[in-house]
Specification:
This protein is an alpha+beta fold. The protein has 20 helices and 29 strands.
Length: about 775
């Protein structure tokens, strides 16, 4: 049989670097984001937020705000029509503060006015009297005797396995006999590590437009990651059935996990229904820092034991994640952190405990890497320390212990697809190193942009030291622990203007990952047509799940493929009925759709697809699921919890001004197994983007929270720094394609894995350059100079 994939490469099918339809619009500034939404008679919504992290609301006076000219409505908790709480996994988040505020920036009241500045000024006139309460900020204050309970004690299967109500979730992973293995260890290495709170820092703020409908419902146009999860949470808040709340995806300016939870969705709908007018809400940058969850800050304690010849015998670790005021997706983040806590290594004896706390710090939840990032920073630092203790090359030591296909995870799950950890390390180490002293020029004057400090002209190379560091990580793909992870696709094939045209409709949120491109490529491959239309994502079609967990190409791509296959079979049945009597191959040969024709697997053309379809429209809407997973045992952590694993390795080259503590990342090379690159250009972009986000966590990105008040100190891009193009180094990428037989086209989720290993690789390089331990990220100048 001919390889259909190869046959369509020139026509924009899978395996081809097809350009994105939204790419030119985005770089030219013409793309319509949710913040650009407009309705002729719309009002503007604004949210009044708490200035305190933990306080009792004693009184709220909205009278002056209501008297403000142009104000149409003011709402507080007392004005909510139905359900007053929501949540992705646990319903613990108030729509508006319910008498207690539990974090800095919590929504307290809403205002709708005919101008955004009027709404803002009216909100400032709302008088709220607070009685401040003691803040819970860390494990010690959260679990101390008599600690304030931030939420009522739950009575569910998970809460019965936590030692304190201020612990959201706890997951141990136990395997083998750590105590016995410790006695056999020639080398034992301890380490304590800390990770700061990272923000997703997407450039497009939270925004949306709610339009009340004649049937008493509402239409919401919104930037989000999961339309149907928003619908499931918003409808009860409005007191409406789900079919009266219609959601359509608007242009999304980045997400990285920060749009999985609700932000302004319910607020805009409440104001629209209250006023009878369309209401638009767009957060400013200050509000955005309070309007979404962040990456969990973490404290991690590790102990590794190994034999003198470099074989890991055991790992013991404890991971404490700060979940902040509300649960969000903390339970799932804990599950990932626990199950991936030792990295992509074979270790027979494991004792892991991971937990997430309720505190009065900002709420934390999903962010690219989802629990595995925190663990990877710590276990990779440990691997370097153990290698140094043994006098081994750090890459060779990793390869000595690297898992491969057939390895058993600490959870007891067998890795039944390629796991080329040693090969990825070999490849990334074999890449050519960038030249030394690359700032030197023929004219003698240094290229300041190539030096730490850049154009600030702080050095001409004096005191600049180079370091090289390596890291590798393991990330799960898709939703885990027994979650019913599926997606839905509706595919239609018809003749338009004499040409067969495919239309694909899913609820997948396009947040920059390029899913709309891949879906068109799949339809071209499976249906053999050149023209593919991608309908806007909305809730008129079944759920596509979240654009997170590196799952969309796998699961929604799988759904599109599944629906296309069903359409193809229906079309071929139509052809057999119409033309089968003219050629025996219709009944005897394997038939394909290719280049707008029905062909045999031997290449013989039987009919034009347009003639087969004629005036018939063939349409199928189908769900597709990956193979099932199961929950981890809450006492032992055993279970087949994940559907797929992805792997990436990095080599970082840095130069450090040791006098000023300034770091220049010169190169951040990556090798990653992607199973099958459906769109190689997009795959490379995902790897480079994830690597850059990990670089930011390594050396600059952190939401700083005052430990005494739990207030955010730096909610702006003036003080919260993210890498710019001048901070981003060359990122050469080596893509390995080892098919996972369980996945559509053998693909493997791509987007998260490079975020894991880039951070520890950069820090490892800085350690090599400075000989400092560096157990916390982000690494700051004062950490390098001792000031």
């Amino acid at each position: 049989m001919r390889d259909l994939t190869q046959g369509i490469r020139a026509r924009g099918g899978i395996g081809e670097s097809t350009l994105r339809p939204d790419g030119t619009l985005k770089v030219s500034g013409e793309f319509a984001y949710a913040s650009d939404l407009w309705h002729e008679d719309m009002l503007w919504g604004f949210t009044l937020r708490s200035p305190h992290a933990h306080a009792r609301i004693l009184s709220v006076d909205v009278s002056e705000a209501l008297r403000t000219a142009g104000v149409h409505a003011v709402m507080t908790h007392d004005d909510l029509p139905a359900e007053t709480r929501y949540g992705l996994e646990i319903k613990d988040t108030p729509v508006l503060a319910d008498g207690i505020v539990r974090c800095h920036g919590e929504p307290v009241a809403l205002v709708a006015a005919d101008h955004p500045e009027t709404a803002r000024r009216a909100a400032a006139k709302i008088k709220v009297e607070y009685g401040q309460l003691p803040v819970v900020t860390d494990e010690k204050t959260a679990t101390a005797p008599g600690a304030p309970l931030l939420h009522p004690a739950r009575d569910d299967v998970h809460s019965r396995h936590v030692p304190h109500p201020n612990i959201v979730h706890r997951q141990p992973v136990l395997r083998g006999d750590v105590a016995a293995a410790r006695k056999r260890a020639d080398v034992v290495v301890h380490g304590e590590y800390e990770m700061g709170m990272q923000d997703q820092a997407f450039l497009g703020p939270e925004s949306g437009l709610a339009v009340p409908a004649e049937d008493g419902g509402v239409d919401l146009y919104v930037s989000t990651q999961w339309l149907h999860a928003d619908l499931r949470q918003v409808a009860p808040v409005l007191g409406l059935p789900e079919d009266k709340v219609r959601m359509t995806l608007s242009g999304v300016g980045g997400a990285f996990g920060g749009r999985e939870d609700l932000s302004m969705q319910a607020h805009a709908c409440l104001l629209a229904l209250r006023t009878g007018k369309p209401v638009k809400i767009v957060y400013n940058r200050f509000e955005s820092f309070f309007g979404h969850v962040h990456r969990h800050p973490a404290k991690l304690a590790y102990e590794h034991g190994a034999t003198r010849d470099g074989k890991l015998l055991y790992v013991r670790c404890r991971i404490v994640l700060d979940g902040g005021a509300y649960a969000s997706s903390s339970p799932a983040v804990v599950g990932n952190a626990a199950s991936l806590a030792i990295g992509p290594y074979v270790v027979d004896n494991v004792d892991v405990e991971a937990l997430a706390l309720y505190t009065n710090n900002p709420p934390c939840g999903a962010m690219r890497g989802f629990g595995a990032v925190q663990a990877c920073f710590a276990y990779e630092a440990q691997m370097d320390r153990v290698a140094a203790e043994l006098g081994m090359d750090p890459v060779a030591f990793r390869q000595r212990n690297a898992m491969a296909q057939g390895a058993v995870m600490p959870t007891g799950q067998v890795v039944d697809s390629p796991a080329p950890v040693a090969e990825l390390l070999r490849r990334v180490k074999a890449m050519p190193l960038p030249p030394e002293r690359q700032w030197e020029t023929a004219g003698g004057a240094p290229d300041l942009r190539a030096l730490p400090g850049g154009l600030s002209n702080t050095t001409h190379g004096e005191g600049v030291v180079r370091g090289v560091g390596y890291a590798v990580g393991i990330k799960n793909v898709g939703f885990s622990e027994g979650f019913d992870d599926y997606s839905t696709a509706r595919v239609r094939l018809e003749v338009v203007g004499g040409e067969p045209v495919a239309t694909v409709h899913t609820a997948m949120a396009e947040v920059g990952q390029g899913g709309v491109t891949v879906h068109a490529q799949i339809a071209r491959t499976e249906l053999g047509v050149a023209r593919v239309t991608i309908n806007p994502a909305d809730t008129r079609v079944g759920s596509a799940g979240s654009t997170s967990a590196s799952r969309q190409t796998y699961v929604t791509g799988g759904a599109v493929k599944h629906a296309c296959e069903a359409v193809r079979e229906d079309v071929l049945e139509l052809g057999r009925a119409r033309f089968g009597s003219y050629h025996p191959a219709w009944a005897t040969a394997e038939l394909l759709l290719e280049d707008g024709k029905v062909v045999t697997d031997g290449g013989e053309v039987l009919a034009d697809l347009a003639d087969v379809l004629d005036d018939t429209c063939v349409e199928r809407e189908l769900e597709w699921r990956h193979r099932p997973t199961e929950p981890f045992d809450l006492r032992t952590g055993q279970g087949k919890g994940h559907v797929q694993y992805s792997f990436a390795a990095h080599r970082a080259v840095v130069e450090v001004d040791t006098e000023l503590g300034l770091v220049k990342v010169v190169e951040l090379a990556c090798a990653q197994d992607v199973g099958k690159a459906l769109n190689p250009l997009s795959v490379t972009g995902q790897i480079q983007g994830g690597s850059t986000q990990g670089l930011g966590l390594a050396v600059m990105e952190e939401i700083v929270v005052d430990p005494a008040t739990a207030k955010v100190r730096n909610p702006s891009f003036t003080d919260y720094l993210i890498p710019t193009i001048l901070d981003t180094p060359a990122i050469p990428v080596d893509i390995l394609e080892l098919a996972d037989d369980h996945a559509p086209y053998g693909l493997r989720g791509v987007g998260e894995a490079p975020t894991l290993s880039s951070t520890p690789a950069v820090v490892a390089a800085i350690r090599q350059a400075t000989s400092l331990a560096l157990c916390r990220v982000p690494v700051r100048p004062e950490h390098l100079t001792g000031t």
